[in-house]
Amino acid sequence: MPNANALEKITDYDRLVEIFGVSKISKELLKELPSTHKLLEIGYIFAHRDFDKLIAQWKKGEKFAILTGRGPSNALHLGHLLIFEFVKWLQDTFKVPVFIPLSDDEKYVFRKVNTLKDSLYYAYDNALDIAALGFDERDTNFFISSKLLDVYQLAITLSRHVTLNEVKAVFGFSDSDNPGKYFYSCIQAAHILYPTWKKGFRSLVPIAIDQDPYIRLSRDIAERIKLPKPAAIHSKYLPGLTGEPMSASKPETAIFIDDDPYQIKSKIWRALTGGQPTIKEQREKGGNPDKCIVFKWLETFVLTPHEALEWKEKCRSGQILCGECKRKLFEGLARKLYEHHKSKLKVISKAEKYFIHEVDWGMIEKIEEKEKALIERYEESAKDLNLSL
Amino acid sequence: MPNANALEKITDYDRLVEIFGVSKISKELLKELPSTHKLLEIGYIFAHRDFDKLIAQWKKGEKFAILTGRGPSNALHLGHLLIFEFVKWLQDTFKVPVFIPLSDDEKYVFRKVNTLKDSLYYAYDNALDIAALGFDERDTNFFISSKLLDVYQLAITLSRHVTLNEVKAVFGFSDSDNPGKYFYSCIQAAHILYPTWKKGFRSLVPIAIDQDPYIRLSRDIAERIKLPKPAAIHSKYLPGLTGEPMSASKPETAIFIDDDPYQIKSKIWRALTGGQPTIKEQREKGGNPDKCIVFKWLETFVLTPHEALEWKEKCRSGQILCGECKRKLFEGLARKLYEHHKSKLKVISKAEKYFIHEVDWGMIEKIEEKEKALIERYEESAKDLNLSL
């Protein structure tokens, strides 16, 4: 069984479903849900473990909890927002609590930050971005992993039910790795099982498909300590603007929440399209929306499924040019992010309502300053970029 | 280099000094101390790392902190009290803070208790026994390892400066061991470096000689993160009553603080002596105090060094019989422990003054009940056992 690290960049999703032994989300399962969501319809959320059983139990009145983490070493990008918007839909639809661990410890042991403290700014910043999506403040529980004693106590408790061999197999570590990385496997299992251990709710974990081995480890541990096994729903990866996976280390691949309209425009204009080399050829032969990242992003972030079909046709028949699509994507994303920053300002003043532990107001004030400056930047640049916000 | 586990039962102390590369405590070093202590005089505390440098710095006005832990899965025995009495002498002599981590997490990952919680009762009970020795409540800091966030945060911070290879070499773990055991190496280093990291005081760690590899690991880590390396002073093991090492799993080897006078008497009467098979032979040939555990214990717990020499001579010349030594030891220890329980009752009501974190008063009340019952038991049995308390 290949470990998660080795599989990180596989995007042959059918193969991953087979390797991991997860189930595809069937049409029958979709019909069981009280409503639907675009990411389910377009197959972006496409596989699961025990989601069907969880829904059946929920219909019988059994509550569950959503558990979805974030490793805070950078600003969120649009791929993250997409998943958290889906999580918010889950919360609204099923009326269940959401737990969101911010794993500063993970970022530190994997050397993504220099000190634990360096991760804190992003922990609060990321949390507030997520809260701004409209999560229910009475039922949403953020916590920074190294700031909640329960996490360490549960991780230690779980650690006795795993062997180093298992951790090596799942994470692909060697004896040159540090013991913090190894122990993080138990911390992660503690995050996943926290709602179950603390509140008695079975966990549902929305997670990218390549992370499934961690879910499997947590399910094995849950079974050994006789807790209900966490369920999972798996997402694909949204391709980055350049065609590569989105990555914080390659800023041109993604649009980050803190990018200003100039950066957004510049990145979109350099994005990979399915267009022809010349306008003439495009008009004659049409473009290829199936190979076009700009179209993929339009479909994902801006258009309704119906609009997307129309747009696709216009591209294929040469009625529209790449510049028009880019402009549409730019305007859609700039407006979306401008609205987002305004929503974020509103949740900042009640940040403490979203956290299980005390919050660092000094840091949150810094974030507030940054947000205000960003909003100004949007408003100043609108005229320059001919953008109606 | 053999690991600590493999060496646990070596009592050839000169060999350990050589293997570990520690220094013996020299007469010159003893002269540098402001006063002396019986355990230093009889060579029970016999080796060190950088204790000489620490004393030299202290004389120049640089404070240090004493760090000495306890793994709480059982009542303390007299061997533990002995070391903590010495630690109290260190505190009185050098006027320095003492930090005492109670490692419930260690006891759990090494399967000495079934749940983390099972360790808590002994954590408080052991702490109060130690506090009862007269530690300065303003400068003594107990903490239960899994109850202090600082511990996890520091352990994670340190974990990045160690490899699994090093942990394996020091602790002798295999890949079938659980990741909690591995991470405990970082927790232990966090305990040792806590006073330095948190308060800026270099640590002095009184520790049994076979535990030196853990000190070495902490010193290596300290060096890598540019903290002053912890110093250590090493003790020998007091032989158990049966001649074997004292152990909680073999109650006959040790006298536990909660033993009542009947148990104490029974254990001492079955202890190993250096006596002759018959009274006649003993009177004629004399006994061998160098091979006698009862004498060793009398020397350690009851007699002054001067009295011990006299007593030794009387044994060798056949003037006293084993029964007299046993009686003397029994009376000395019973009185010592009776006084101890009365002192403990006095510190129980101010337990919170000794802890860095909040204490569990429900548990402390249980301990108080137990202590009161024990004191009654002493008083009731005194007449029966012809014991003047």
UniProtKB/TrEMBL annotation, chains A, B:
<protein>
    <recommendedName>
        <fullName>Tryptophan--tRNA ligase</fullName>
        <ecNumber>6.1.1.2</ecNumber>
    </recommendedName>
</protein>
<dbReference type="GO" id="GO:0004830">
    <property type="term" value="F:tryptophan-tRNA ligase activity"/>
</dbReference>
<dbReference type="GO" id="GO:0005737">
    <property type="term" value="C:cytoplasm"/>
</dbReference>
<keyword id="KW-0648">Protein biosynthesis</keyword>
<keyword id="KW-0030">Aminoacyl-tRNA synthetase</keyword>
<dbReference type="InterPro" id="IPR001412">
    <property type="entry name" value="aa-tRNA-synth_I_CS"/>
</dbReference>
<dbReference type="InterPro" id="IPR002305">
    <property type="entry name" value="aa-tRNA-synth_Ic"/>
</dbReference>
<keyword id="KW-0067">ATP-binding</keyword>
<dbReference type="InterPro" id="IPR014729">
    <property type="entry name" value="Rossmann-like_a/b/a_fold"/>
</dbReference>
<dbReference type="GO" id="GO:0006436">
    <property type="term" value="P:tryptophanyl-tRNA aminoacylation"/>
</dbReference>
<dbReference type="GO" id="GO:0005524">
    <property type="term" value="F:ATP binding"/>
</dbReference>
<comment type="similarity">
    <text>Belongs to the class-I aminoacyl-tRNA synthetase family.</text>
</comment>
<dbReference type="InterPro" id="IPR002306">
    <property type="entry name" value="Trp-tRNA-ligase"/>
</dbReference>
<keyword id="KW-0436">Ligase</keyword>
<dbReference type="Pfam" id="PF00579">
    <property type="entry name" value="tRNA-synt_1b"/>
</dbReference>
<keyword id="KW-0547">Nucleotide-binding</keyword>
